[in-house]
Amino acid sequence: MTTGPDWRSLDKDLARLNQTERATGYVVRPLLGLGLALAFMAFAGLEAALVMGTSPTTIMAMVAAVFGAYLALNIGANDVANNMGPAVGAKALPMTAALIAAALAEVSGALLGGSEVVNTVSRRLIDPTAMNSPQVVVLAMMSAMIASALWVNLATWLSAPVSTTQSIIGAILGATCAAAGVAAVDWLTFSSIATSWMLSPLIGAALAMALLALIQRLISRRDDKMAAARRWVPVLLAGMGGAFGTFFALKLPDTIATVTPEQALGVGALAGGLSFMIARPVIRYRAAQLEHQKGAIKALFRLPLVIAAVLMSFAHGANDVANAISPLASIVQVMGQESIGTHPAEIDAFAPISVPFWVLIIGALGMAMGVLLFGPRLINMVGTQITKLNPIRAYCVATSAALTVIVASWLGLPVSSTHVAVGAVFGVGFYREYAAAQTRRAGGKSNRPGLPREDRSRRRLVRRSHVLTILAAWLITVPLSAMVSALVFTVLRFFAG
């Protein structure tokens, strides 16, 4: 007697196969990312060897290039959340599109505007006369790269968006103190930098709260929201265009033009006017399409949010690539002078840096690969886990971050994009809590009618655990990276004799 197939057994086998495939995917994906990262680091070392040739310093240059690539990978992985986190959290961009857009914008910004490494942290913080030995400078910068990369790597694994500027400054401080003593550091300069770190997240939060309150007053609380949106969204876009125009004018490489703050304001005004002329008909057309759809007002802010996120990624690539390549460029410069036979006493280890293109390539590609391979972890943290973001709130975060960076540029304060962006996210979340409390006091409708009244009154829209985690990471970044850097320098000096 012929029996039919055992469908139950077949279903169980298929379920086991699917489970095995999922388990294999969980194991293979991290290993694939790690393998690609190691391959890129090996490529950086090979590139350094090809450029330096048969120089006696080739081995040291290869090692420096490998650690420079490692640092660039970690900077890209950690800092991408500042730019793309709000857009992903607001569902204006899917994760894959956000990663690709961020990677392309980071590379473009780094290659077009990242070669101007002027007044780097190593020159502002260190007294050149206290550490004038080229060999000591090489070991100190090597130690700073290693320590900074290790800390940023650990922070990314812990889903803590830390400041790469803080990390590299702390690492340079630690290596300098170990090499030449505490007196070699300009502590007045460091105190001004530390003050800007404390103020920048507060400024970002305040601007984000003010912008969200303004949008609610002008649009969200109007009886005819769509008519208000058609009127005011182009004005807001013009303000964003003006802000970014001013920012890019201020950050224009000196090889192209030197722009004063007054000229930058003029460029910003022109960019704002053009943005308004372009945005007005586009918004009117889009508003007509969304007239009777649910969530139409929020949908109008999706395109401006995407544009803001891409522009911020471009600006990040142009500015923060210096965190990855400044120590490497300094090492290459010192080694280059040694390789042509310059007497050690004549080597100026603190001369202005001319960044070789191959060093810039390592920084640009390293940041882009860090975004693609390891970016999703922190994008989810900033975009979804601190507070809920929609396109309007995310737009407030991106625009307030840009304004804060512009003000800091005028004041000459080296603020951290991480501090500003995360502070703006917190500001939006805390403003939502404040607005919800005001609504309850006025007897308004709660957003969650299914909960008892006493539970609604205790509703928290910002996850306090993430606030504490991020603040703790910010506080320990400088001392921890400094201690690790000092330890690494001591070990390297021991083996280098």
Description of the structure:
By secondary structure, the chain is mainly α. 78% of the residues lie in helices and 0% in strands. It contains 17 helices and no strands. The protein has helices at residues 7-52, 58-89, 95-113, 121-125, 134-157, 164-180, 187-220, 225-250, 261-289, 296-300, 302-339, 357-374, 376-385, 391-411, 417-441, 453-456, 464-496. α3 runs antiparallel to α12 (357-374) and α8 packs parallel to α11 (302-339).
Share in β-strands? under 5%
Low-confidence stretches: 342-347, 446-458
User: What is the radius of gyration?
Assistant: 25 Å
Q: Roughly how many Å apart are the termini?
A: 85 Å
Number of strands: 0
Shape: elongated
Helix content: over 70%
List the total number of helices: 17
The multimeric state of the shown protein is: single chain
Secondary structure category? mainly alpha
The major beta sheet can be summarized as: none
Q: H/E order of the elements?
A: HHHHHHHHHHHHHHHHH
- Kindly report the average pLDDT value: 75
